[in-house]
Amino acid sequence: MSYRIGFIGAGNMSAAILGGMVKQGVAPDRIIASNRSTPKLEALAGEFGIQTTTDNHQAAGADVVVLSVKPQMMKDVCLDLAPHLDHKPTIVTVAAGIPMASYEQWLGRDHAIVRCMPNTPSLVGKGASGLFANAQVTDAQRQRVESMMQAVGITAWVEQEALIDAVIAVAGSAPAYFFLMMEAMIDQGEAMGLDRATARALTLQTAAGAAELAATADVPVDELRRRVMSPGGTTEQAVFSFEADDIRAIVARAMTRCANRAAEMAQEMGN
């Protein structure tokens, strides 16, 4: 890789992305991260050998600039960086809730900008990221961003910005749905007499195994479900209970509320 990547912000998501890149063979001297907190920078430099700085302008001199600061800080950060982007880097934002129009207003409409919606499993290399590019992003720039985010999981491009809200509902917020299901199963396992450690271990291994099986199987997930459901058996009773409580409608309502709130936040943050 001949281009340089600069991270504005050195939080968990930046650490996950740049760490994944280094593990995939990207030279650490091609990566620079800036942050106001020097302990975070020292930790990143110590673990990955990257360059660090407390000067955002220095990090913004890279060919790809990743904006990874809190949404409420983003406007001030962008306005401060705008005069230092004459070299026209590819700008990638991993902040939730800020529409493309705001970035174009703060940075300039002639910049190539990609909105990226990663999720927390990126921290363990199992992420899923939705990507939306403005009209200035070239195919080569798309490939750079895609390569960067694939260091921590899979990527999916959407061609309409509004679909980022669907990505949030399906992937960005979705780890919490599964965590809630795991929590409920662990609690019930303990209520049924298992010690909590055992209930936890069995639940988490089953969740991981089910996800891996679904990802590698050559049949859709509904067929995998049917294969576990022996007629008159135990699994069938559990699934019948879920269906009787209309689990599909529960999931649909939850995901719709998630997407609606994402759209509301984009409007709020854009004002």
Provide key terms for this protein.
271 residues, alpha/beta, Rossmann fold, 2 domains, elongated
β-strand percent reads 5-15%
Unreliable spans are none
Q: Count helical runs.
A: 12
Radius of gyration: 21 Å
Would you write up a description of this structure?
There is one protein chain. This protein has 271 residues and is an alpha/beta fold. It has 2 domains: 5-161, NAD(P)-binding Rossmann-like Domain (Rossmann fold, 3-Layer(aba) Sandwich); 174-265, ProC C-terminal domain-like (ProC C-terminal domain-like fold, Orthogonal Bundle), CATH 1.10.3730. It has 12 helices and 8 strands. It has helices at 12-23, 38-48, 56-59, 71-81, 100-107, 139-149, 163-172, 174-191, 196-216, 221-228, 234-244, 247-270; strands at 5-8, 31-34, 51-53, 64-67, 90-93, 112-117, 127-133, 153-157. An 8-stranded mixed beta sheet has the order 3-2-1-4-5-6-7-8, sandwiched between helices. The protein is elongated.
Question: Topology, please?
Answer:
Elements lengths: L4 E4 L3 H12 L7 E4 L3 H11 L2 E3 L2 H4 L4 E4 L3 H11 L8 E4 L6 H8 L4 E6 L9 E7 L5 H11 L3 E5 L5 H10 L1 H18 L4 H21 L4 H8 L5 H11 L2 H24 L1
Parallel strand pairs: 1-2, 1-4, 2-3, 4-5, 5-6, 7-8
Antiparallel strand pairs: 6-7
Give a quick summary of the entry:
It comes from Simiduia aestuariiviva. The chain has helices spanning 12-23, 38-48, 56-59, 71-81, 100-107, 139-149, 163-172, 174-191, 196-216, 221-228, 234-244, 247-270; strands at residues 5-8, 31-34, 51-53, 64-67, 90-93, 112-117, 127-133, 153-157.
